[in-house]
Design brief:
Elements (H helix, E strand, L loop, with lengths): L1 E6 L2 E4 L4 E9 L6 E7 L6 E6 L6 E3 L7 E6 L4 E6 L8 E8 L15 E2 L3 E6 L1
Parallel strand pairs: 2-11
Antiparallel strand pairs: 1-3, 3-8, 4-5, 4-9, 5-6, 7-8, 9-10, 9-11
Length: 126
């Protein structure tokens, strides 16, 4: 069983930056994919960014590409999401997710991940 804990959310103004962190503990059995999802009120959970085990392959949602950067430190079991030039439409609860047995790929569907953090709120005011 893997536990994930997010941190770094908060209330910021449009144009500001935030860095989210996700700490993983517990046991993984193989190479694992990580991702950041977000969910705004009344909307479906969507993948913002994903990264494969080695960190060599990444995915970004079109609306955040060029503003957000996903990274990971496998030695420390940490994942990050650097968010720059934040916009009010980025307001949501952000979740980190882990999929074991990823065979070097990343995944973008919420149903493809078996471990989730509790979420951290990001609010961007205009």
């Amino acid at each position: 069983q893997v536990q994930l804990v997010e941190s770094g959310g908060g209330l910021v103004q449009a144009g500001d930056s935030l860095r989210l962190s996700c700490a993983a503990s517990g046991r993984t059995y193989s190479s694992y994919s990580l991702a950041w999802f977000r969910q705004a009120p009344g909307k479906e959970r969507e993948c913002v960014a994903a990264i494969n085990h080695s960190g060599t392959s990444t995915y970004y949602k079109d609306s955040v590409r060029g503003r957000f950067t996903i990274s990971r430190d496998n030695a420390k079991n940490l994942m990050y999401l650097q968010m720059n030039s934040l916009k009010p439409e980025d307001t949501a609860v952000y979740y980190c997710a882990l999929r074991d047995y990823s065979a070097g790929y990343y995944y973008t569907g919420p149903h493809e991940y078996e471990s989730w953090g509790q979420g951290t709120q990001v609010t961007v005011s205009s």
